[in-house]
């Protein structure tokens, strides 16, 4: 039996000179561990003096979801990176995390949240919305967030998460729920809000960095280099302390569709990797009923999750974005 953790462990370094407040987090999903080793490596270097904090502050949370991490799975009681907000009355373990995590997110200026993904593929960054005053995700730091996304050194940057997720909510709400807390949460319009969306709602900005496949041996090194590049971008450490990002502009894609896995018998046509190309009408998978799941347009498949829990995201679709950053 796994005992539920009773606290959230933070490591903070505060410089003597004023500057930006950075928060770096990992293991929001307990089986996404590449960022843990990367964060601990940076902490050791700051402790030893091998790395010098010039100004501002940096707060590290190596393991956000300790329960899920101990269990070696994505979630403890539920998906922490959905329905993120301070709970009025905590109902589950992830709510208890949020009592401490949300104030930390609100207090920082910039967030770097380190993740990994199930399928094969290369690292990519998730960018927030363009500047807007709409109801879904009003925002005013698109230019700074674009520079942040460019700094980490990925070959691809993806935008459009929350607006795409909102489209899926309408379909999910039409399906009959099972009456559980999970089912009710997944029909809540707030359910698509995770770390970066919550950070933007509290002012400031941040990105989700997908560092590679869960078990990719290169992912911890990529996460480590990304942390240093972000710290250098913000002036927290000297520029020469970080390796320059690769030359050239990354590909910029926009999510436009999300498809849920509805039944355990839903299966993919083959083992998809994030950013595999699909053409209009191409069979992506098959429902348990035998109904084909076809690509509605040319584009890329993103976050394919062959073993997704029924009622949650199976895969996303993306196409080229017309956005200009950097």
CATH topology of the largest domain: Aminopeptidase
Low-confidence stretches: none
Strand content: 15-25%
Query: N-to-C SSE series?
Result: EEHEHHEEHEHHHEHEEEEEEE
- On the 0 to 100 scale, the average pLDDT is 92
Number of strands: 14
Major β-sheet profile: 11 strands, mixed
Helical/strand content category: alpha/beta
Morphology call: globular
The helix tally amounts to: 8
Roughly how many Å apart are the termini? 49 Å
Q: In the residues, how many domains can be counted?
A: 2
- CATH class value of the largest domain: Alpha Beta
Q: From the 3D coordinates, which CATH architecture of the largest domain would you assign?
A: 3-Layer(aba) Sandwich
**Main sheet: which strands, in order across?**
1-3-2-4-7-5-6-8-14-13-10
C-alpha-based Rg, rounded: 19 Å
Proportion of helical residues: 25-40%
Question: In CATH, what is the homologous superfamily of the largest domain?
Answer: Zn peptidases
Could you write a compact summary of the structure shown?
This protein has eight helices and 14 strands. It is an alpha/beta fold.
């Amino acid at each position: 039996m796994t005992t539920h953790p009773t606290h959230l462990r933070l490591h903070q370094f505060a410089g003597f000179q004023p500057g930006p407040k950075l928060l770096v987090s990992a293991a929001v999903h307990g089986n996404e561990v590449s960022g843990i080793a990367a964060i601990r490596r940076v902490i050791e270097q700051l402790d030893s003096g091998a790395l010098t904090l010039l100004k501002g502050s940096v707060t590290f949370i190596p393991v956000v979801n300790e329960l899920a991490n101990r269990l070696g799975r994505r979630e403890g009681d539920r998906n922490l990176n959905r329905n993120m907000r301070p709970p009025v009355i905590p109902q589950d373990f992830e709510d208890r995390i949020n009592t401490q995590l949300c104030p930390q997110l609100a207090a920082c200026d910039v967030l770097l949240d380190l993740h990994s993904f199930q399928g094969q593929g290369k690292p990519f960054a998730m960018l927030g919305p363009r500047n807007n005053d709409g109801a879904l995700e009003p925002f005013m730091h698109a230019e700074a967030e674009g520079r942040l996304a460019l700094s980490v050194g990925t070959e691809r940057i993806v935008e459009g998460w929350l607006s795409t997720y909102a489209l899926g909510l309408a379909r999910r709400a039409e399906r009959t729920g099972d009456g559980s807390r999970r089912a009710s949460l997944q029909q809540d319009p707030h359910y698509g809000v995770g770390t970066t969306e919550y950070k933007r709602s509290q002012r400031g900005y941040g990105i989700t960095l997908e560092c590679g496949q869960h078990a990719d041996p290169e992912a911890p090194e990529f996460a480590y280099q990304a942390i240093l590049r972000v710290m250098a971008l913000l002036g927290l450490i000297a520029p020469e302390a970080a390796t320059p990002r690769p030359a050239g502009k990354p590909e910029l894609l926009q999510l436009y569709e999300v498809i849920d896995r509805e039944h355990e018998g839903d299966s993919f046509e083959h083992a998809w990797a994030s950013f595999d190309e699909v053409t209009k009408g191409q069979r992506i998978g098959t429902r348990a009923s035998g109904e084909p799941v076809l690509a509605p347009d040319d584009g890329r498949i993103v976050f394919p999750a062959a073993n997704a829990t029924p009622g949650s995201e199976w895969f996303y679709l993306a196409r080229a974005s017309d956005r200009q950053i950097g």
